[in-house]
Amino acid sequence: MTEEKPKILIVEDEKAHAEALSEGLGRSGYECIVANTGLKAVQLLAEQTYDLVVTDLILGSDIDGLAVLQATKQHSPSTEVILITAHASVASCREALRDGAYDYVTKPIDIEDLREVVARALERGHLIRDNRLLRQMLNEHFGFEGIVGRSQQMVDIVRTIRQVAPSDVTVLIQGESGTGKELIARALHSNSHRSGKRFVALNCAGLSESILESELFGHVKGAFTGATSDRRGRFVHADGGTLLLDEVGDTSGAMQAKLLRVLEDGEVTPVGSNESIKVNVRLISATNQDLLSAVAEKKFREDLYFRLQGVTIKVPPLRERREDIPLLVAHFLKEFAAKHNKVILGLTPEVRRVLAGYGWPGNVRELLNVIEGMVVLARGQRLELEDIPDQIRNFGPVPIALLTSDKSGGAAQEGAAQVEISAGMSIAQAEQQLIRKTLEFTGGNREQAAKILGIGARTLYRKLKEYDLS
To answer: How many CB atoms lie within 10 A of CB 225?
Structure first.
């Protein structure tokens, strides 16, 4: 949906009641469309997609509220449906919930109660649509499981993987710790002609030169103290497949020379042996360092660098692709709710705002661990502010991070707007200033302002009226 206001279809055969519902929900910032018959509702559902359907159970025609529910789910499975009934029939309500209704309310309608149910239903629909976009992005046919994101940076990375994976060219993946470099390496492997063979990964950081040499090339019995038998190295173990050397920038000069020899000759010599072993391995390297700068500083061999970087993939830190955070959160919520047998229906707008505004120095790995902890410790079916770890919830004070898109449609860029908070200022005054500054930054674009603030469009419209900021 691209409209600023959530679009609600109201299905009610009593025109006065329909108008009252439309007016009551319209004051909350929703765009309401009314259908006075079930047949008209089905026609409208076939023509466009709605964020929510509110329908009377009894419509006085051949098409009742249950038929409207079924038509809604047929045309748009992520659209939630709220039923209105004067009868509160347990059997019919159970049938409706079983067929996918979000909830039901009974007549006479309390408009405030209905607004609460509507807000919850829209939030759930938002989460479902996020999950749908996530599944599209994963594109299981191409094997990109786990690569989550719709930012331009991630779209470009997925495109590069598709282009490069079928070849045997070496790939250098650069990015901070926790950005998912190994995930990209696995995607390259699974989309290559080597996918039926092994994917082998070795983290070079923290290993002494002798241990790393043995891990990579293997050793023969008696090569050193403790070598009680022959052991093949990672190159031989990965023969025919793919070898990932993670944190290759941490290797010593002597090890870099040996790696270069393997790439040139296609052979490895186990420690303590005089016999070389021919290997056919695709090499992928990953590092959190700037290897080109290391080459300039004579800390990394230039000839090896050019061998490793047949194609370079740079993975941005999470703080530079904040628009991917909601998708990642939705993905991890689903994954960990299933893993820990928890029912988690979503998270509050305040939680969304905090998660989107945090710096995530540990990148995707940190977000993953935080979401899993929140799911495990959650006391309700929605993640609340108190479920967020203290170090993240109390992060600040910092400038408000504002995301804008450049005019060419490129990646999001970060700017900052300073909001001055002083002692003696009320929460309402601070909120007014925050909303005003954000609207100034977006040039009055309310949809973008709502996204930046981490609140729904309906909430922003209500605040604008409340503070007379329109």
So the answer is: 6
How far is Cα 38 from Cα 433, in angstroms, rounded to an integer? 46
The Cα 276–Cα 285 span in angstroms is: 23
Contacts of 193 (CB under 8 A, 6+ apart): 166
Q: Count how many domains the chain has.
A: 4
CB 367 within 8 A of CB 360: yes
| pLDDT tens digits, 302-311 | 999 999 999 9
Rounded to 5 degrees, what are φ and ψ at 13? -80, -20
Directed axis angle between helix 152-164 and helix 181-190, to 10°? 40
Is residue 392 a contact partner of residue 350, using CB atoms and an 8 Å limit? Answer: no
Q: Would you say the pTM of this structure is higher than 0.70? A: no
For the ranges 36-40, 71-75, 215-219, 407-411, the lowest mean pLDDT is seen at 407-411
| Sequence-separated (6 or more) residues with CB below 8 Å from residue 234 | 200, 202, 215, 216, 243
How many Cβ atoms are within 10 Å of 444's Cβ, its own excluded?
9
pLDDT tens readout for residues 275-328: 999 999 999 999 999 999 999 999 999 999 999 999 999 999 998 888 888 889
**Percent over 70 (pLDDT), the chain:** 86
d(CA 430, CA 112): 26
**What confidence category does residue 405 fall into, taking pLDDT thresholds of 50, 70 and 90?**
very low
Supply 7's token pair. Answer: 């679009």
How many other β-carbons are positioned within 10 Å of the β-carbon of residue 120? 17
How would DSSP label each residue in 298-325? TSS-HHHHHHH-SEEEEPPPGGG-GGGH
Examine the fold and report which residue of 335, 363, 393 is the final residue of a domain before the chain moves on: 393
Q: Is residue 138 included in any domain, yes or no?
A: no
Bigger pLDDT: 444 vs 403? 444
* Cα maximum dimension of the chain: 93
Choose one of 103, 122, 141: the last residue of a domain: 122
Q: Between β-strands 412-417 and 400-405, what pairing exists: parallel, antiparallel or unpaired?
A: antiparallel
- Answer whether 351's CB lies under 8 Å from 329's CB: no
Measure the CA angle with vertex 269, ends 298 and 168; round to 5°.
Answer: 70
- And the tokens for 172? 């250098």
Structure tokens at 395: 């992060």
Q: How far apart are CA 346 and CA 225, in angstroms?
A: 56
Alpha-carbon gap, residue 447 to 29, rounded angstroms: 12
Whether 406 is in a domain gets the answer: no
The percent of residues above 90 in pLDDT, for the chain, comes to: 44
Structural domain of 424? 415-466
Sign of CA dihedral 205, 208, 214, 217: positive
| Helix (DSSP H) and strand (DSSP E) numbers for the chain | 19, 18
